[in-house]
Amino acid sequence: MSDTQTRPNPKRAAKIEAILDAAEALMIDTGGDFEIGQLARAAGVSNGLPYHYFGSKDGVIEGVIERFYARYAQVIDRPAGTDIAWPIRERERLEDTIAFLYADPLAETIFSHLSHPGLIAREHAMQQALIERAARNVRSGQIRGQIPADIDDRLAGAAIIGAVRTAMATAMRMSPRPSPRRVTSQLWALIMSAVGLSPEGE
Q1: Are 94 and 15 in contact (CB under 8 A)?
Q2: First CA to last CA across the chain, in angstroms?
Q3: For 139-177, what is each residue's pLDDT tens digit?
Q4: 64, 69, 70, 73 alpha-carbon torsion, rounded to 10°
Q5: Which of 10, 56, 95, 175 is the most buried (most CB within 10 A)?
Q6: Residues 6+ apart with CB under 8 A from 28
């Protein structure tokens, strides 16, 4: 493979980012109900370029979904000291997650307004990846003897991610939104129950 084939192309990368930025802004405004021509104008590119890079409008939206979940994963995967007790570490991670989801303007659209079956399937796959991360977190608590060994880590991970998603989708549609502290408190009780611990035992 030649140097020109392996060397990153900054101009191409910038255009892809411009398309994704414009698509994200349109999704926040419309929930995904936009035309490629509208997207191209917003991104400052030709009508054919989104098709060239993404194949279709759904391909563009998939790119936006994946970029959102990459941001989300950075919050979930943020390193925490191994000397910190699991409940303390995970409550801090929950607080960070809620702060991220409240602050990211795309979160409500992703959680509540996707309607195309293919996009829902892609978003489901991204959720499954989060469940795997949550299951690893549960296993780490079990290895350290801080979570009961008989808890099924995958079921607990699914319960945690499902609870966060459903509660946050509801909270983001409420007016006024409940405070992050209130959401954290109610979700934390559910999470501790999912891993066989008492909220009072943090």
Answers
A1: no
A2: 55
A3: 999 999 999 999 999 999 999 999 999 999 999 999 999
A4: 170
A5: 95
A6: 105, 106, 109
Strand spans (E) along 66-109: none
Cβ neighbours of 28 (radius 10 Å)? 18
Residue written as tokens 């949550």? 134
CA distance linking residue 54 with residue 51, whole number of Å: 5
pTM of the model: 0.85
Q: How far apart are CA 73 and CA 183, in angstroms?
A: 20
What is the C-alpha to C-alpha distance for residues 8 and 31, in angstroms, rounded to an integer? 32
**Tokens 């945690």 map to which residue?**
160
**How large is the C-alpha radius of gyration of the chain?**
20
Burial of 145 (0-12, 13-18, 19+ CB in 10 A): exposed
Tokens read off for 57? 């409008």
How far is Cα 146 from Cα 137, in angstroms, rounded to an integer?
11
DSSP letter string over 102-155? Answer: HH-TTHHHHHHT---HHHHHHHHHHHHHHHHHHHHHHHHHHHTTSS-TTS-HHH
Rounded distance between C-alpha atoms, residue 167 and residue 120, angstroms: 18
- Arithmetic mean of pLDDT over the chain: 89
